[in-house]
Design brief:
231 residues; 7-stranded mixed β-sheet; alpha/beta; Rossmann fold; 25% strand; 9 strands
């Protein structure tokens, strides 16, 4: 499928203006939540990524204006594309640099992976739903994003490319999977929502110290779909 052709294409100025408005709204929300998140000001690289990635291409079939609202949207198979503010915040909390390798657990539509591609050196992404993995792989390639998408149980991570500087998990689990912690470098960060599927959830930032010890910060109350898998 040609994902670029299947999505209504606005003019370049309209698209750029929509992404700029989205970034401005995200900046305001970051400031409002800054006391809780510890990140009242998002880095330039993250905001530039929000301004660069065409979110409407990751939700084909939805109106252009809806695609650029700061809210989560359905993508089929019981999954969602995350709220752009949360995407930006999770990317910021990962503290990525241009030479870093990052693993995303839960590719979904591929939007978060595209944002990560702009700020990191190498992006691996794992998706357990085969249809979503195949669609995201094709969509990212069509848009020019070199993201390695793997069909696998995200709870197990992707040990073949470990260790990672950071891991982002885009679905909630009752606890941080130990298999993911083990795939971080010492000093590496994992950012993920933790909590029950239909109960309170918190976005956590965990930093790996010596061995498997981790230091955790509770950053925000969130609501994510559950992390699927048996790992």
């Amino acid at each position: 499928m040609n994902f670029l052709a299947s999505t209504p294409r606005p003019g370049p100025e309209q698209a750029a203006a929509a992404r700029a408005r989205l970034a401005t709204g995200i900046e305001a929300e970051a400031m409002a939540c800054g006391a809780r998140t510890g990140r009242p000001v998002l880095g330039r690289a993250v905001l530039d990524a929000i301004r660069a990635v065409p979110r409407h291409a990751f939700v084909p079939g939805l109106p252009f204006e809806v695609a650029h609202e700061d809210e989560a949207l359905p993508i089929g198979h019981g999954q969602t594309i995350s709220q752009p503010f949360v995407v930006a915040l999770m990317t910021e909390l990962a503290d990525l640099g241009p030479a870093d390798s990052v693993l995303e657990v839960g590719t979904g539509s591929g939007y978060q992976a595209a944002i990560l591609w702009h700020v990191a050196g190498l992006v691996h992404s794992v998706e357990i739903v085969p249809e979503l993995a195949r669609a995201a792989r094709a969509r990212l390639a069509a848009l020019g994003y070199d993201v390695r998408v793997h069909e696998a149980d995200g709870r197990l991570g992707h040990p073949q490319a470990a260790p990672y500087d950071a891991i982002l998990v885009t679905a909630a689990a009752p606890a941080i999977p130990r298999a993911l912690v083990a795939q971080l470098r010492e000093g590496g960060r994992i950012v993920m929502p933790v909590g029950e599927a239909h109960g309170p959830q918190a976005l956590l930032r965990a930093t790996r110290g010596p061995g498997d010890r981790i230091a955790i910060r509770d950053c925000l109350d969130v609501r994510f779909v559950p992390l699927l898998g048996d790992g």
